[in-house]
């Protein structure tokens, strides 16, 4: 029963976010508030009323060992380099002006507020996604269900969830490549977290990758 709650609630949360982004076309602030609400409320309700543990106990943050997150630092530095190299290789296939116009018109992200948005993406958004997709979905399903299903479901949902963000940025082939890449990233993130039994390793990698993405964003906006 518990695993069904995780599957259903996580899928509903991502469907709602996709609808908010693609159908309602709200600005970035509203979309962020909806995301914070869903990605924190659903795990909290599960932890409080189903798992019946404290949040620290449920996501195993009460026995933090720095030695367990060394892999996160190593993979994080590697992800930083990979993102920047990938951009250098594929930037000619991107319609930079269309991406910038969409960010400004659809999400109201501009050069003037990009620093604050970037800071939130690096620290806040990365935490929310890792807490939800790895701390809540993967680590719980890893204990409750078939381990292979836990890997595949959380990674696939993580990848599909991101398609709504960039589906108009790339051609169909790059979208497919990005989707495959995100699934692989999700699988790696999951594996990293089995080494510490919490989501801190994947959060570190996510932070480093997002730093690289924000640097690219600054470049696209002509800020640097």
Write the layout of secondary structure elements.
Layout: H1 2-24, H2 28-51, H3 55-58, H4 70-90, H5 96-106, H6 114-144, H7 147-166, H8 172-194, H9 200-220
Helix pairs in contact: 1-2, 1-6, 1-7, 2-6, 4-9, 6-7, 6-9, 7-8, 8-9
Transmembrane segments: 33-50, 71-90, 110-128, 148-166, 172-191, 203-221
InterPro entries: Rce1/LyrA-like_dom
GO molecular function: endopeptidase activity
Shape descriptor reads globular
Q: Cα distance, first to last residue?
A: 51 Å
Q: Please tally the β strands and state the result.
A: 0
Indicate the mean pLDDT.
86
Q: Low-confidence stretches at least 5 residues in length (pLDDT < 50)? A: none
What share of residues are in beta strands?
Answer: under 5%
How do the SSEs run, as a string of H and E? HHHHHHHHH
Number of helices: 9
Q: Main sheet?
A: none
GO molecular function: endopeptidase activity
Keywords: Hydrolase, Membrane, Protease, Transmembrane, Transmembrane helix
Protein name: CAAX prenyl protease-like protein
Domain CAAX prenyl protease 2/Lysostaphin resistance protein A-like: 113-211
Question: Could you walk me through the main structural features you see in this protein, from its secondary elements to its overall organization?
Answer:
It contains 9 helices and no strands. The longest helix has 31 residues, at 114-144. The chain has one domain (2-220). Helix content is 79%, strand content 0%. By secondary structure, the protein is mainly α. One of its GO terms (molecular function) is endopeptidase activity. The chain crosses the membrane at residues 33-50, 71-90, 110-128, 148-166, 172-191, 203-221. Residues 113-211 form the CAAX prenyl protease 2/Lysostaphin resistance protein A-like domain.
């Amino acid at each position: 029963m518990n695993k069904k709650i995780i599957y259903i609630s996580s899928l509903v949360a991502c469907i709602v976010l996709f609808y908010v982004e693609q159908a309602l076309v709200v600005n970035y602030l509203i979309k962020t508030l909806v995301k914070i609400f869903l990605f924190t409320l659903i795990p909290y309700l599960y932890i409080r009323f189903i798992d019946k543990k404290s949040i620290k106990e449920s996501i195993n943050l009460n026995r933090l060992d720095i030695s367990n997150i060394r892999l996160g630092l190593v993979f994080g530095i590697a992800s930083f380099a990979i993102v920047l190299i990938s951009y250098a290789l594929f930037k000619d296939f991107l319609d930079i002006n269309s991406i910038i116009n969409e960010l400004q018109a659809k999400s109201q992200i501009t050069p003037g507020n990009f620093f604050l948005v970037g800071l939130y993406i690096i620290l806040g958004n990365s935490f929310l996604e890792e807490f939800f997709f790895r701390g809540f979905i993967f680590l719980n399903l890893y204990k409750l269900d078939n381990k292979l299903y836990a890997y595949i479901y959380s990674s696939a949902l993580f990848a599909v969830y991101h398609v709504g963000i960039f589906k108009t940025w790339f051609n169909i082939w790059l979208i497919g490549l990005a989707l495959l890449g995100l699934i692989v990233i999700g699988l790696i993130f999951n594996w990293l977290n089995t080494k510490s039994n919490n989501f801190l390793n994947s959060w570190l990698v996510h932070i480093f990758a997002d730093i690289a993405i924000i640097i690219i964003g600054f470049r696209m906006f002509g800020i640097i």
